Structure prediction request, 366 residues.
Amino acid sequence: MASLSQLVDNVVVMSFDLDQPLVTIGRRAENSIRIDEISVSGQHAVIEAIPNAYLDGVTDYYISDCNSTNGTLVNDLRVSERQRLNSNDLIRIGWNEFRFIDDSENALEQTAYILEE
Amino acid sequence: MMCFAVAGLSDAGVRRAVNEDAVAWRVSQAGDQALLVVADGMGGYAGGSVASELAVAAVLEVIGPKLEIPDQDPMTMDDAIQAAFNLAQRRILSRRQQMPALAKMGTTLVLAWIRDDEAHIAHLGDSRCYLIRGGEVQCQTRDDTVVQKMLEDGSINERDVPKVPFRNVLTRALGGSSDVLASMRRIDLLAGDRLLLCSDGLTGALPESCWSGLLGGEASPAEQVRQLVDASLANQASDNVSVVLLTVL
Prediction:
């Protein structure tokens, strides 16, 4: 399963499992990941977990910004449309930093193979 | 009648000890037909190179003799191309059954059969055929990969491609797929056109935008192929790099 690790000065202070099809991030209490901090919008961003249509057992994670005031950034680039996350991507929600981790990626990285039918 | 100059080269690359690609090319005695083949094998141990060599050998066996037959019906040519893919598949599956160490081997296959001004292009997998016309590089094949399908359904964009962890996963190839119906197309060639077949080691190490500078001028086809492969090696090509290039004179 994938997770988000919140970083403060590059140290992990909190970890959130992405164990729901839709994880919401924002300042309001109803968010799955609540960040009660002024730079974060009420509903700031969402992360969707979607089974890959072509690879059995693989889940893709996509982040979208919900028109937040201070924006969502992935690896210092502003998220303008739904974007697929890769393990170790650095996500900024307002002034808050998170590392996206998906351990299952390592197995896929190796060499080329064919989907056996 | 159009005349052709053909050259090709395959290199293991700077990180791999083994070259699992195979290439071949033939020009008919009359000079009016040519055949170009690239296969990129996979499957560990010796499997990759066995699969790609079986595939190239099957193509030469089926189509090679037909290069000497003039005035063939284009449909007959397409049937022969599919017969070559089918034979390659049978040989690979048979070898997979005989030798457990090769049980997972497979290969891509791309070929171009040129007769006068018409090229028949066929492929399975992610080895590609490009048409280079007037400095413009146009890909003539669509990769059989998970990445290509996700680009087409909008899940990812071009910027994501180098980063997705399953960028090496093929949806179709010889060996792994039960359906080996080749994707085919025909294109008309003009004097000065070039057709380039390559494995993904070339595209992975050397962007298409860099090719034109290496493919022009007075250099012979063999020298041009050498320049492309050398440039990809200078970029630390991590995969095997193979190129077959045809120039229409």
User: Anything to note?
Assistant: Chain B touches chain A at residues 40, 42-44, 104, 106, 125, 146, 149-150, 153, 155-156, 160, 163-166, 168-173, 175-179 (CB under 8 Å). The mean pLDDT of chain B is 93.
